[in-house]
């Protein structure tokens, strides 16, 4: 009844020209999405920092353990298209609840797979992979939601900030996994404890999403563009995106940036250990990637919310990311340069991570009125496809070192690989993508223009000067 009353009041307010409304519950939905995003990311990277312990406890090879992380990329590609349809057709509430249940059930199966007290057929690697696959299926539902949430629930001057907060909760989950997995699973026997702990946040967010999110859209839209969100049919929207030249430039070249960034993040330990840098230092560099990325995203999100300079911010940050990537490719091949390696990792994270939520907003601006999940989701899929391709190619470009006196990667010399050529190729790809993006990408802000046009039209229809169209009402419910 409360929601019905709110809807009636909002309708009267719109007709009288009072303006759009925003609701405080948007912050709760944003909190749920952040917690879900963080939980899902920590489930993704659970085993990477403790691969040896996991392999020893389950009696499997390291290659099998690596598939626990790779399955996220593999599953994201086919399910990404389904997820965009679900978000734009069934709505945000269904997507978040479905994602939270997949995330929770998957985490529970992972925990059960480590309980040796169960019958032999009920525990072990197959059940662990099944649970991890369910968590991977939840990832697109989580990753694609920030842009949709920002568009439906937040006013025009808060959209980029809301998108930034929701998007940066994902690397925060990666940071937690990098810190807590080695801390808890110090020995192979602690693996059940580790996976049991990860079940707790997954269960909490499932409870909050299922009982706390009452609707996918607010009773009254916060902006003119929110009224027409997902107005295009799904297949028609996809066709429009594929015919949109500027969007395809963004899809291809920013997807390249995502692929390179993922490669560096995934392969950093292997790249550094050949030059004598320890796993602890590699973990520190990975943490610097994430921490400085979150800091950079906070500053950039606030900046573009106030200035609306999406394109300028994206081009500058991608250019600086390419420079940082090139510097990292060079210093990572030097010995005894911890300060320089740590500094370049920090800069690469600061500029690379921070541009992601801005580009997600830019993808909506250049493709409006296509659904937000479709425009942002296809870019994510492009990044995942390119990530898989680059990891395979770059590993093929490595060469075995005949002599590796400084390597701390493995005891046998045959395991030491030279990453000099792959890191230079990665830097070249990043620089190429940035150059083409800066030169070729130019777009109008279609969503902002539509909102401006709607506001001007409403202003012309005003009968009373005191009723200013566009006044924002904070509705408490």
Q: Can you put this structure into words, describing what you see?
A:
It is globular, with a radius of gyration of 23 Å. The chain contains 18 helices and four strands. The protein has helices spanning 2-15, 25-44, 51-58, 62-89, 92-112, 125-143, 145-153, 159-184, 191-212, 224-227, 234-243, 245-273, 279-307, 310-331, 338-367, 372-397, 420-440, 446-460; strands at 21-23, 399-400, 417-418, 473-475. The longest helix is centred in the last third of the chain and has 30 residues, at 338-367. α4 runs antiparallel to α16 (372-397), α7 runs antiparallel to α8 and α15 packs antiparallel against α16 (372-397). It has a two-stranded parallel sheet with strand order 1-4. 74% of the residues lie in helices and 2% in strands. The chain has 477 residues and is mainly alpha-helical.
Brief overview:
The chain has 477 residues and is mainly α. Helix content is 74%, strand content 2%.
Write out key terms for the chains shown.
disordered N terminus; two-stranded antiparallel ribbon; 18 helices; 477 residues; two-stranded parallel sheet; mainly alpha
Structural class: mainly alpha
Strand order of the largest sheet: 1-4
Oligomer type: single chain
Global morphology:
globular
DSSP strand content: under 5%
Elements, N to C (H/E): HEHHHHHHHHHHHHHHHEEHHE
Low-confidence stretches: 1-18, 467-471
The major sheet is characterized as: 2 strands, parallel
From the alpha-carbon coordinates, what is the Rg to the nearest angstrom? 23 Å
The helix tally amounts to 18
The helical percent reads: over 70%
